[in-house]
Amino acid sequence: MKLIRVYNDADGESHIDDVEIELNNEGASGRASDMWEVEGIIFREIIPGGSADWHPAPRRQLAINLSGEAEIQTTDGSKRHVGPGQIFLVEDTEGKGHLNTWLDEQVHEFVFLPLK
C-alpha cells in the first residue's frame, strides 16, 4: 500500500514522493500495518472555486481525499494529480509549503488525521 508523501528539506523546499506502507501483521482476513497514533479526526469541505495558495501544512498529518480532482505542486516543481481515495502523508510544516489547484467544480471532501 502506498501513500503520497509531501515534505520539506532542511532548506525549506518542498518535495513529493511515494512511501510504501509495510503490511507486516497477517491475519485470517489479510495483512495490516502497525498502528499509527493520531490525535483526532478533522472533516473538511472545500467549496467549488475555493483555492489554497502556497502554504505549509499546519501540522504533520494524514490527508485522505474523498471526492474531487486536484493537483498538488511542490517548490521543486513536482506536480501530482490526485483523486478520490488517495492518501497523503503531509509533513511540509515549514518553508513555502505546497500549492493545491482544484481541477473540477464540485465540493471537495477530505478527512485529516493529525499524527502524534
Secondary structure elements and pairings:
Layout: E1 2-8, E2 14-20, E3 25-27, E4 30-32, E5 42-46, E6 52-55, E7 61-67, E8 70-74, E9 79-82, E10 87-91, E11 98-102, E12 108-114
Parallel strand pairs: 1-10
Antiparallel strand pairs: 1-2, 3-4, 5-12, 6-11, 7-10, 7-12, 8-9, 8-11
Structural commentary:
The chain is an all-beta fold. It has one domain: Jelly Rolls, CATH 2.60.120. 0% of the residues lie in helices and 53% in strands. The protein contains no helices and twelve strands. A six-stranded mixed β-sheet has the order 2-1-10-7-12-5, with no helix packed on it. The radius of gyration is 15 Å and the shape is globular.
Defining key terms:
116 residues, single chain, globular, mainly beta, Jelly Rolls
Number of helices: 0
Strand content: over 45%
Strand order, main sheet: write it out: 2-1-10-7-12-5
CATH class: Mainly Beta
Q: How would you name the CATH homologous superfamily?
A: Jelly Rolls
Mean pLDDT figure: 94
CATH topology: Jelly Rolls
Largest sheet: 6 strands, mixed
| Tertiary shape | globular
Order of helices and strands: EEEEEEEEEEEE
Low-confidence region ranges? none
Radius of gyration: 15 Å
Domain module tally: 1
Query: What is the name of the CATH architecture?
Result: Sandwich
Short characterization:
This protein is mostly beta strands and 116 residues long.
